[in-house]
Design goal:
This protein has about 140 residues and is α+β, with helices and mostly antiparallel strands. It is built from 3 helices and 8 strands, in the order αββαββββαββ. It is globular and about 40 Å long.
Length: about 140
């Protein structure tokens, strides 16, 4: 009985340490912020399906300030991810757009992906987390 318990404990500890070893921090730097009005809304998506459904794995809100805002997502599991963000200057909680759907407020995507008649494509935004910390720097598009 004791040998079985020891084996179970060893397997559990190994599985847990393997999980921890595969997680990493994502350090995100958002540059080109033009003013201190409102907030920045930032979303991290795990996989293309979740991105297309708008189902963020993690999300955060940061106070806007001119220039650069830095933030981190901690202990992110290994996998494929994408980031999108917007500068909600009027602080109404949404990315405002004109009659044609073109944003009136700043926005951006990981890898500096550019929109093309709609949001940026996931394939242009994606990056991998493999256990090493990642630093991303993306400029706001106004």
């Amino acid at each position: 009985m004791m040998k079985t318990a020891n084996k179970l404990f060893t397997l559990t500890a190994f599985a847990f340490s393997s999980f921890i070893a595969q997680s990493a921090d994502i350090q995100l730097e958002i540059t080109g912020i033009k003013n201190d009005q409102g907030k920045l809304y930032i979303q991290l998506f795990n996989g293309e399906e979740n991105y297309n459904r708008g189902k963020a794995e993690l999300a955060t809100i940061a106070k806007a300030k001119p220039g650069t805002v830095a933030l981190s997502f901690h202990d992110v599991a290994a996998g494929e991810y994408a980031v999108r963000f917007f500068h909600d200057e009027n602080d109404n909680g949404t990315l405002d757009s004109n009659l044609f759907g073109i944003p009136n407020e700043g926005y951006g995507f990981s890898n500096g992906a550019q929109p093309n008649f709609g949001p940026a494509k996931y394939q242009d935004m994606k990056f991998r987390v493999n256990g090493s910390d990642i630093k991303l720097s993306n400029k706001v598009i106004y």
